Amino acid sequence: MENELRRDYFLDRFVIIAVGRAKRPNDYVHIGSVEADTGRGCFFCPGSENQTPPEISRLEEDGKWIMRVFPNKFPAVSPEDGPDTGIMMPAYGRHEVVVESPEHGKTVADLSIERIVSLLKVYSGRVEAMLADPKIEYVMVFKNHGRAAGASLAHTHTQIISLPVVPNLVREEVEAAGRYHQERGTCPLCDAWVKEMNGPRRVWEDDYAAVFTPYASRNPFESWIMPKRHIKALNELDADERKSLASGLKLVLSKLKAGLNDPPYNMYLHVSPGEDDLHMHFEVLPRLSTWAGFELGSGIIINTMAPETAAEFLREK
Amino acid sequence: MENELRRDYFLDRFVIIAVGRAKRPNDYVHIGSVEADTGRGCFFCPGSENQTPPEISRLEEDGKWIMRVFPNKFPAVSPEDGPDTGIMMPAYGRHEVVVESPEHGKTVADLSIERIVSLLKVYSGRVEAMLADPKIEYVMVFKNHGRAAGASLAHTHTQIISLPVVPNLVREEVEAAGRYHQERGTCPLCDAWVKEMNGPRRVWEDDYAAVFTPYASRNPFESWIMPKRHIKALNELDADERKSLASGLKLVLSKLKAGLNDPPYNMYLHVSPGEDDLHMHFEVLPRLSTWAGFELGSGIIINTMAPETAAEFLREK
User: Fold this and answer.
1) How does DSSP assign A132-183, residue by residue?
2) Which residue from A288, A295, A278 is spatially nearest to A310, judged by alpha carbons?
């Protein structure tokens, strides 16, 4: 098998699957310095609620909170607006944090499917609230797990940032999906999951959701989780779909945690901006390799693990 | 000063300059575990020439080599070709290594300007040789310095990879420069250096080259080094321009090394592919921050250092 240059399903994005440098899945087991992280002094733990900015909302069970939402103390965007000069504008928007569990040391992989369903509802509620502001063009939901993935606090949390522009990577997907639709009359992501459920990159599916490692995976164990129905955003999910997506997310995150010793990863959600049309999906990017000068200068990512190998690993029980 | 959302000179690329999270330059001083790196067992040191793949070329001084070029032992691309299926093709090309100094522990920052001039000539020669293959569309010259920047070997070296496609980031620059030229009749990078030499992001210039921190810098201390004349590729540089570019490169890399304790960085060269028109330039990206879920999902980079602050630091003698 030679190294392959693979093009994404619909984006002008290439990866090199460098099987000549390939390792086995177990070579990627995360060797983290096991921090003596007791949670002492953690601002996100119960008892420290007064050390976060004022709470926006919470979910409770048995009189105690199980999830909390509040503004980020060090926001990347801010709610003061100002003039747009064409190449500069204030970084207008809101930056919020969702603490997904009161238990320090728990991760989303450890939550029950019902809790992850609740988390998806929390995401949806905050996204809707942020989109009510007419100056907002897009809301980015993302998660950093582990220091190498950019998490500065260990206690499990998601971040939500609203923006006055559609981010270029989302716009590229919308435009490429539009071209694909014009040429073939179908959605590239509807086509992708159907194809992948019948091939070597299938990880899991049920009636409502599909999980696979994408053909042009950028990172080892990259996984996409999406509803089968062509829907544009979180608020279009019905109860069955939410439960299936929660199951798919739990499956991927649990397998990464158990099989690769809790590796660092990023997760983010891509949805349709405004009236545009993009099949919503989650992308999980484990951070088990380093993008270097070639990747940063070319945009072509060298991946030393074939997604077929990654899917086989993720399918194993 | 508010956080700013800045658009690149000509690309649809946004950054958030998050001064609300800002640090001072000295907060970025690299805290590396000072490895006891004696060079013992290094394949790139003199005496181990027979452990690299067969040498392609060398520069000598006083009968000893001062630079060597040879194929990468673990290539990302390979010289066997095969059919192109539209979304998959063999990763055809050549992957070479330039060892820039025989001295283990030396970096490009430590080389004399004359040596860096020689290095630019070596780059140019290898790029021309690779482009002689009609199947090659682009040649990427890049450098990884330090483990966090993806360098797997400590001994200073550059990598050169030839590709059967134009990388998407280069194509985006070509297309955006074309649109800019159509609208204004000028080159965006000619305009950029002229503007920047008269403002707070100026780092250095002489008659032939300009160095600045770009307006929409993605990383702390990102620096661009370019010839003032609108030229497309290394083989168009005249002797004065080569010397000036070498001086600019040495200045940036020396200042990073001395001022920030030898931080990890990537450097790459963007040139015009084929008949296209792109003002050639080097980009240096220090790796002193981590791109996380927001960056990977949106393409918008949050940078906690304003390029004006970075330029001030780089200008200091």
Assistant:
1) TSTT--EEEEEEEESGGGT-SS-S-EEEEEEESS--HHHHHHHHHHHHHHHH
2) A288
Task: Give the mutation candidate from B298, B302, B308 for the A interface (greatest A CB count, under 10 A).
Answer: B298
CB of B269 within 8 Å of a chain A CB? The answer is yes
H/E element, A294: helix A293-298
CA distance to partner chain B, nearest, from residue A63 (Å): 33
Pairwise CA distance, residues B227 & B208, whole Å: 6
Q: How confident is the model at residue A24 (pLDDT cuts 50, 70, 90)?
A: confident
pLDDT tens digits along B97-106: 999 999 999 9
Whether the CB of B259 is below 8 Å from some CB of chain A: the reply is no
Q: Is A63 exposed, middle or buried (0-12, 13-18, 19+ CB in 10 A)?
A: exposed
Question: Beta A209-212 vs A202-205: how paired, if at all?
Answer: antiparallel
Query: Hey, is B181 helix, strand or coil?
Result: helix
Q: Name every chain A residue with its beta carbon within 8 A of the beta carbon of B4.
A: 88-91
How do beta strands A209-212 and B4-7 pair? unpaired
Please report which residue ranges of chain B form alpha helices under DSSP H: 113-131, 168-184, 188-196, 239-260, 293-298, 307-315
Residue-range definition of the domain harbouring residue B152: 4-22+44-315
Segment A28-38 shows an average pLDDT of 65
Cα Rg, chain B, nearest whole Å: 20
Of the candidates B5, B80, B164, the beta carbon closest to that of A164 is on: B5
Domain membership flag for residue A55: yes
Shortest CA distance from B87: residue in chain A: A7
pTM reported for the whole predicted model: 0.94
Q: What is the CATH number of the domain that holds B268?
A: 3.30.428.10
Stretch B64-83: mean pLDDT: 92
Enter the ipTM: 0.95
Under DSSP, is residue B15 helix (H, G, I), strand (E, B) or coil? strand
The answer as to whether A75 is a domain residue is yes
Section B45-54 average pLDDT: 95
Residue A34 within a domain: no
Residue A35 lies in a domain: no
The torsion of the CA quartet A71, A77, A79, A81, rounded to 10 degrees, works out to 180
Give the total number of structural domains in chain A: 1
Which residue is catalytic, options B95, B145, B155, B157?
B157
Residue B33 has pLDDT above 70, yes or no: no
- The residue of B19, B141, B191, B300 whose CB has the most chain A CBs within 10 angstroms, and thus the best one to mutate to test that interface, is B300
Which residues of A, range 17-46, sit inside 8 Å of B by Cβ? 17-18, 20-21
Taking a contact as any Cβ pair under 8 Å apart, which residues of chain B between 86 and 145 contact chain A?
Answer: 86-92, 140, 142-144
In the predicted model, what is the mean pLDDT of residues A7-25? Answer: 85
Give residue B34's pLDDT band: very low, low, confident or very high (50, 70, 90): very low
Residue A40: what pLDDT? 79
pLDDT above 60: residue B95:
yes
